[in-house]
């Protein structure tokens, strides 16, 4: 969970349970993570809603854990729900960026090179990584997320007053520059009356007794009439 204005984020450990299963005379320990809608809504209320000011809207993906109980919780607090479209993580880019930074820090932490990895070692890594991101200078904020949200330096007793109008201008400038960079390779073309269009449909065909889906492409050519 992350606040878009300041970049302050929270990490919650999902409840999990180990279950021993015997398969072909071999005992296998499976870990089941509780990502139900009821559990996610309870953790969200405990970690964010009960501690932080009321949000006006919330952006989340289309996972099943954000249905039912989670939607009811948001409606109870009068929070506007804005789910992203399917397979479009760019709509929640600020959170996906944090995931990428965490992944890069985890790869370079050396945990995978250790002889044994305990839950305490992983927990210590998450605490240290979260502190480093919260206290790192942000180019848009011109401060760290911790400084912006608490109004004081994370290390020293120095007050800080954020200029949110200037921050908004810098953020919009960064969005415009990124949009220009993404669109500069696109051809500027307008369709005229009578030209043909090519429409592509993707249909998922599920085969019986299999655990995968077959992706098929159907292409049709249409003529535009006005």
Structure description:
The chain is of the alpha+beta class and 226 residues long. It has one domain: 2-Layer Sandwich (Nucleotidyltransferase, domain 5), CATH 3.30.420.10. Helix content is 35%, strand content 20%. The chain has six helices and six strands. It has helices at residues 37-49, 69-76, 93-107, 119-134, 145-150, 164-183, and strands at 16-23, 26-33, 57-60, 80-83, 196-206, 213-223. The strands form three sheets. A two-stranded antiparallel ribbon has the order 1-2. Strand 3, helix 2 and strand 4 form a beta-alpha-beta unit. Helix 1 runs parallel beside helix 2.
Q: Quickly count the domains.
A: 1
Tell how many strands the DSSP assignment holds.
6
Write out the strand line-up for the largest beta sheet, numbering strands in chain order. Answer: 1-2
What are the low-pLDDT stretches, counting only 5+ consecutive residues below 50? 208-226
Any idea what the shape is? globular
Q: Major sheet, described briefly?
A: 2 strands, antiparallel
Order of SSEs: EEHEHEHHHHEE
The CATH C-level class name? Alpha Beta
What CATH calls the topology is Nucleotidyltransferase, domain 5
CATH superfamily label: Ribonuclease H-like superfamily/Ribonuclease H
Percent of residues in helical segments?
Answer: 25-40%
Oligomeric state of the chains in view: single chain
Strand portion? 15-25%
Question: Rg to the nearest angstrom?
Answer: 23 Å
What CATH architecture label applies? 2-Layer Sandwich
The number of helical runs is 6
The class by helix and strand makeup works out as alpha+beta
């Amino acid at each position: 969970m992350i606040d878009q204005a300041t970049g302050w984020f929270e990490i919650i450990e999902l409840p999990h349970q180990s279950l021993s299963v015997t398969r072909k005379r071999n005992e296998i320990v499976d870990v089941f993570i509780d990502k139900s809608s009821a559990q996610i809504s309870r953790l969200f209320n405990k970690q964010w809603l009960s501690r932080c000011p009321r949000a006006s809207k919330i952006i989340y993906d289309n996972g099943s854990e954000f249905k039912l109980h989670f939607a009811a919780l948001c409606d109870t607090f009068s929070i506007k729900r804005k789910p992203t479209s399917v397979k479009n993580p760019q709509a929640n880019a600020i959170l996906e960026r944090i995931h990428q930074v965490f992944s890069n820090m985890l790869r370079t932490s050396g945990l995978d090179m250790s002889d044994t990895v305990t839950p305490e070692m992983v927990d210590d890594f998450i605490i240290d990584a979260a502190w480093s991101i919260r206290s790192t200078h942000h180019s848009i904020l011109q401060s760290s997320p911790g400084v912006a949200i608490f109004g004081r330096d994370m290390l020293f007793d120095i007050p800080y007053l954020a200029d949110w109008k200037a921050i908004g201008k810098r953020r919009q400038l960064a969005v415009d520059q990124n949009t220009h960079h993404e669109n500069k390779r696109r051809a500027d073309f307008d369709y005229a009356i009578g030209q043909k269009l090519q429409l592509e449909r993707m249909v998922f065909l599920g085969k019986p007794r299999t655990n995968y889906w077959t992706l098929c492409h159907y292409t049709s050519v249409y003529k535009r009439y006005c």
